[in-house]
Amino acid sequence: MTTLDTVRPSRRGLLKGATGAVLLGFHLPSRHAAAQSAPASAPPELNAWVVIHPDDRVVLRMAKTEMGQGVRTGLAQMFAEEMHCDWSKLSTEYVTPGQSLARNRVWGNFLTAGSQGIRSSQEIVRKGGAAARMMLTQAAATRWGVPAGECSAKDSVITHSGSGRTLRYAEVVAEAARLTPPADVPLKDPQQWTVIGKPVSRLDTADKTTGKQVYGQDLRMPGMLVAVPRRCPVFGGTVKSFDAAAVSGKPGVRHVLKVGDSAVAVVADTFWQAKTALDALPVEWDTGENGRVSSETISAILDEGLTAPEAFIGNQQGDARAAIAGAARRIEATYSYPYQNHAPMEPMNATVVWTPTRCDVWCPTQNGEAALAAAAQAAGLPQTACDIHRVDLGGGFGRRTVHDWLADAILIARQVPGTPIKTMWTREEDMVQGRYHPVTKCRLVAGLDAENRIVGLHMRISGQSILSTAFPGGLQNGRDPVQFQGLNAGGAEGAIGYTFPNLLIDHAMRNPHVPAHFWRGVNHNQNAIYLECFLDEVAHATNQDPLALRRSLMANHPKHLAVLNAVAERIGWGSPAPAGVHRGLAQQMGFGSYVAAAAEVSVERGELKVHRIVAATDCGHAVNPRQIEMQVEGSFVYGLSAMLYGACTVKDGAIEQTNFDTYNVMRLGEMPKVETIILPSGGFWGGVGEPTIMVAAPAVLNAVFAGTGRRIRDMPLGDQLRQRG
Amino acid sequence: MATLNINGRSVQVDADPETPLLWAIREHIGLTGTKYGCGIAQCGACTVHLDGVAVRSCALPLSAVAEDQKILTIEGLSPDGTHPLQVAWRALDVPQCGFCQSGMIMAAAALLAEKPRPTDEDINEAITNICRCGTYNRVRAGIRQAALGGTAG
């Protein structure tokens, strides 16, 4: 039998070059997998999840992708919890989607997004670990001729309680692998966990401190060429003409190519040669109708949607319109949120070897299976003739769940058959060919009774639907359910934390031509600003304490309330803040978790300084508190970067921001102190990579209002505080 | 043909003089720990030392680097990953995706070489590298720990 190990090219093929750089082996074992026989020394596969080497190393196979969020370590903890293996000898490797296809998707879904890494695979991974332990224990018991119930396992060693005899996992793995996997795999009660819940160090830190960690950008193969593409900067536009002869004689240039209908590329010996030639390449684009679109025209379309009669309903309780019409007082406000680019530190790239019968790809992707489907389509080959060999990501944030860049890389490699082609985007290409956080506006109207109680709330969202671009199949009779994240009446993903006697949340879908996509935090980012800042407005307009107003609406939402109370208590809500410092609050539920934040800020001469943030998270089960802290801290950087600076604007159909000089992000010196409170209430599995982003901006914006009386309703903040209010 | 002194050895690089040092390091010499992030000296992922000073190699043409100037990359920072910053980075789990971390560490190493006990303001001024995962607070803690000789957090 050919074990999986023999068809694993991504790591096996890595060779150390003379300079210390990592080279990919010229041989691509997957191409020849069927012809290969397993080497005699190949360690046996115990089950799909795990290989145990003779020296006791345990290798866990992973379908999810590591992009910094710590999923490698978290999955390993869950696996080790049940397998009882020696943590110090545990490592991981990626399986390929091709292997998964061939084995009936034994590793489950590869999608690593939506803060799903842990929660969507916790059961299958824990059961994989438990089944491995049961089979190993049974094998030892059989060898000893004793009941398995008399044997226990710890740190990769099985002990027979009666005789004290021991066997290492590695000594019985061959016999264990021949056993029928157990049908019934009981899992530990959370009370018994000893690895899950511990702040263990990451498994992948060391190589990230020495430069040894290999990213897609770093891949090298003998004979490899580098391609740098440029796609029509106006989405939907095409190549009218280009003058290849003008640059084909430049140093190192091998090919000047058209890529599909909409892009060109220069293939050269090095990136710098390709980029330099591409910059000099004359290209004429046909931008079509979209070339007339601007941020102003998009804004006008969204404005129309704010009061349009037709809209998709997201959450409806009672009759909000009637309640507001009959209310003693109305408060209303309109907010807006712009396009954002994911801007991961590593621009898009993929290394491809295409032949008429086979296509292999090495790339950073958040979804190996989707990458395989995209690759096969672009390669003109069946999925069984293609595979995706993953490397860790230099950031993902949702951008690497969609594979437009990979399809183009394959269309380039198809024109240079048999030659490894590394296609690398410039930062400029990455900025203008993004898949953007959608643009929306929101008009909120609250009706109050004579005692200033909210009797009705209408929240009208106008703007772009992600699913319409990213996954039209997910639309429900045209309605995009993702639009209402955090505003839903219930559910595990994003339930509103307030009860209003009458409520209407609806969405006038208006889709400009700029492609929208999932962006860390997704629609929670703006939905939380809209609702949490508007409630703050209502509180201040009616002389109510913002915390007290929220609490009055949260009696039916104890988990939302618990995290809000936790941050309020820790920040000292209700007690005086330091001189010149002002506080703001926000809470939201999303990605299965409940989060809240309290911020302390000061504003002097229009300059905002965020001093301190307290964040609370209830993610049900907390797998690794240290990782959660890291994700919470990082969420503030991502969320506040967008709030402070982030905006992609449109001119003549194209995105105007081309690099970090015009798409600024937060730096170290702006970073507040972050105190993380983890409140795992148990009984469910929530995400942690994204939820805290939801509350970062509204907590700070509410603090800004407390300090200045300025209500910031249009993101980003930019220089609004320096302008006269 | 340019001659570079990199990580203590002299290497010949057959590249156009206008080629940024970053690409000579990555593509000609084959040291890929130094990253391309922006190409316009904004993000700092390409930070290396030139005669002990942190520079952004993506915007520094080979023609501006003299033969006797000492270039240090992340691969040359310590022979075995035991520079105090690398030790602190591992102790605190500073990196997330890790892509920016070579540049972060090189920027921090230049800071510590100049100011062994940097203040918070010193750190703010010296570390302007971009990290999208958001490791800033741990970067600061790592620098502090390294400055204290790895004895405190």
UniProtKB/TrEMBL annotation, chain A:
Ranges where the Aldehyde oxidase/xanthine dehydrogenase a/b hammerhead domain occurs: 210-289
Database matches in Pfam families: MoCoBD_1, MoCoBD_2
InterPro entries registered for this protein in UniProt: Ald_Oxase/Xan_DH_a/b, AldOxase/xan_DH_MoCoBD1, AldOxase/xan_DH_MoCoBD2, AldOxase/xan_DH_Mopterin-bd_sf, N-heterocyclic_Hydroxylase, OxRdtase_Mopterin-bd_su_IorB, TAT_signal
PROSITE patterns: TAT
SMART domains: Ald_Xan_dh_C (SM01008)
Protein name: Molybdopterin-dependent oxidoreductase
Organism whose genome encodes this protein: Roseomonas populi
Organism lineage string: Bacteria, Pseudomonadati, Pseudomonadota, Alphaproteobacteria, Acetobacterales
Automatic annotation (TrEMBL), chain B:
Record keywords, A-Z: 2Fe-2S, Iron, Iron-sulfur, Metal-binding, Oxidoreductase
Limits of the 2Fe-2S ferredoxin-type domain: 1-77
SUPFAM superfamilies according to UniProt: 2Fe-2S ferredoxin-like (SSF54292), CO dehydrogenase ISP C-domain like (SSF47741)
InterPro entries reported in the protein's UniProt record: 2Fe-2S-bd, 2Fe-2S-bd_dom_sf, 2Fe-2S_ferredoxin-like_sf, 2Fe-2S_ferredoxin-type, 2Fe2S_fd_BS, Beta-grasp_dom_sf, Diverse_Oxidoreductases
PANTHER family: BLR6218 PROTEIN, OXIDOREDUCTASE WITH IRON-SULFUR SUBUNIT
Protein known as: (2Fe-2S)-binding protein
